[in-house]
Amino acid sequence: MAKLKFSKSALKSERDALSRYRRFLPTLELKKEQLVAEVRRIEKERAEITARKERLMKDLSEWVSLFSEPVDLPSLIQVKAVKTKQGNIAGVPIPLYETTEFETRDYDLMNYPAWVDFGVAAVKDLASLRGQDEVLGEQQRLINAEMRVTVQRINLFDKVKIPECKSNIRKIQIFIGDQQASAVVRGKIAKKKSTQKGGLTA
Description:
By secondary structure, the protein is α+β, with helices and mostly antiparallel strands. 73% of the residues lie in helices and 13% in strands.
């Protein structure tokens, strides 16, 4: 930590720093509010996706239970890629879900039960929901990391830097005030001595 200087330029520097911190603090607090709102939005979306996945799994299991023929649906369809694009929330670069691409193996409808088309579509839907959830999970991770940094900065400004600047300004002002008072006293003493010398000379 740099040693505090007791000068008018140091006083100006501390006042400028205090003004800066006070100006940045509301911006950081607003950013924190935006990040908190985004985390809540993501949590809500992920809960909705979980509910949709559970409904889809229930529907699929009900369809499968109607038929005795076991079918290895995952062998008919595979996820090729989860496509995303770049987004930005409160200055945080995040991935945004676009689509899930699949590779579907050709299958002969004569060799599979009638519900297989429905099953393949359901597996695609499930995989798409999983892809969306993974992307939302990554958004959440990135936003939470940024929120930790933002909260640390808010605490640094609010609990350390601003009080430190105020304390430094008060110390410098007291020092400069004492110096000015001492200068006035010295000036009066010098004037008195000068007057006394003048009187003796006369």
